[in-house]
Design brief:
single chain; alpha+beta; six-stranded antiparallel β-sheet; 2 helices; elongated
Length: 149
């Protein structure tokens, strides 16, 4: 069974987001992907984890592939899916596409670590968060038991 990616962002590339070459500047891709990641991670930790102020996330790796120019006025949708789980980490992929035409504009892959904000250290994913993240794993992705991060 294939896991459906979550829609985690819907927006528009405003003219003020475009650089002197007429396409959306990389800083705005980063902001859109970051906003989308909060949606995905919120689904993983659930309402109880979202209100928890002692724990959060720390991104340790992020990579963006720019596939298609994004011009002012482009309607954008980002869909996110979990691709790998570690002891304390979640690796996810986010695909930014044109809302109306489905053209892929960019793909982001990020690894983030569950983090104790007071101790400033990685902690294991909570059992409930692991269960939710496993439900979001796409087919063919490694399941939990991977002991990395």
């Amino acid at each position: 069974m294939s896991v459906q990616a979550l829609t985690t962002y819907v927006g528009v590339a405003h003219p003020w987001m475009c650089d002197t070459m007429g396409h959306m500047n990389v800083r705005h891709y980063a902001a859109m992907f970051d906003d989308a990641s909060f949606q995905l991670l919120g689904h993983i930790v659930g309402p109880e984890g979202q209100s928890e102020s002692a724990r959060g996330w720390a991104d340790v790796r992020s990579e963006v592939e720019y596939k298609h120019e994004t011009s002012a006025g482009a309607l954008i949708t980002i869909r996110s899916r979990v691709i790998k789980l570690g002891r304390s980490s979640v690796t996810f992929e986010q695909v930014m596409s044109g809302t109306l035409d489905g053209v892929v504009h960019a793909v982001n892959r990020t690894t983030t670590v569950r983090f104790d904000l007071q101790a400033r250290a990685a902690i294991a994913l909570e059992p409930e968060a692991r269960t939710r993240a496993e439900a979001l794993l796409s087919d063919g992705a490694p399941r939990s038991g991977d002991q990395s991060a």
